[in-house]
Design goal:
InterPro entries: Phage_phiJL001_Gp84, Phage_phiJL001_Gp84_C. It holds the Pfam family Phage_phiJL001_Gp84_N. The structure is a single chain. This protein has 277 residues and is mostly beta strands. Helices cover 7% and strands 35% of the residues. The protein is built from 4 helices and 15 strands.
Length: 277
């Protein structure tokens, strides 16, 4: 590979499968079934890689354009954690190429019609804490392999059309009397159709209003506005307490907490809460 035919190419793939390719060459480069366009959609800055398990460090930046990476999609979170690969490639013979980076997009900042995204290498997950946490509350996520609750159950999931939206975070739905107020708090909302299809959010409050339907409040807006008539799916929430696991989900056998641990006050001064006899 010579410097006269050297260029960079990078592909970025969203969770929904949409894949884009870009290059810093002045013509389109094609390999691996993808076309890498000489577009302003994205450029990559100098790459820093460690020889050990340190986190790779780099940034990607570019202009927000209607036919590539749009501000609307970034705000909606459609590019969050997107998979990114970068090659050094001989544009005269694309078969002669070398993969120099593989990872995902991290934190994304937007300003004045452009974006800047942190690139996180494959070693990034190694920074996560490992092992179990000894705590009275459950360490599993509702519905995961440790919890084993079937979220497809009719009591835990429901689909309804949005009747009205207020302040982008409060949704009015029809009544569903089989579920008491608060049933979906700490749960999730997923949009099934409309402009925000595929986006989801965490539920802050679930209020049953007598004669006025149900009000669901999200912790933050979705990025793409919901419309009246859009269909959403609500999934029940869990506060990680042993009592909730037993009474709400009938799943205490799979509880992953330690509800009988003594309190911090007892650990600091055991004689205050125990028998002295």
């Amino acid at each position: 590979m010579t410097t006269t035919t050297f260029c960079r190419a990078w592909s970025i793939r969203r969770a929904d499968g949409l894949t884009l390719g870009f290059t810093d060459h002045d013509v389109t480069v094609r390999f691996g079934g993808l076309s890498y366009r000489p577009d302003h959609g994205m450029t990559a800055r100098a790459l820093v890689q460690g020889s050990g398990l340190s986190v790779d460090n780099s940034e990607a930046e570019g202009a927000l354009s209607d036919d590539a990476i749009t501000e609307r999609d970034l705000l909606a979170g459609r590019w969050d954690n997107a998979e990114l690969k970068m090659w050094e490639v001989d544009w005269s013979d694309p078969a002669r190429r070398r993969l120099v980076f593989a990872g995902r997009l991290g934190e994304i900042a937007r300003s004045r019609g452009a974006f800047r995204a942190e690139l996180r290498g494959l070693s990034e997950p190694l920074n996560a804490a490992q092992g179990r946490v000894f705590h009275p509350r459950c360490s599993a996520r509702l519905g995961d392999g440790a919890c084993k609750v079937d979220l497809a159950g009719t009591a835990l999931r429901i689909e309804r059309q949005v009747l009205a939206i207020e302040d982008e975070v409060r949704l009015r739905l029809a009544e569903f009397p089989d579920h008491s107020g608060g049933w979906f708090e700490r749960g999730t909302l997923l949009v099934l159709d409309g402009p925000a299809e595929g986006l989801g959010g965490a539920i802050k409050n679930d209020l049953a209003i007598a004669g006025a339907g149900r009000e669901i409040e999200l912790w933050q807006q979705l990025g793409t506005s919901l419309r009246a008539g859009d269909t959403v799916r609500l999934t029940a929430g869990c506060d990680k307490r042993a009592e909730t696991c037993r009474m709400k989900f009938a799943n205490f056998l799979n509880f992953r907490g330690f509800p009988h641990l003594p309190s911090e006050d007892w650990l600091m001064a055991p004689q205050a809460g125990g028998n002295r006899g």
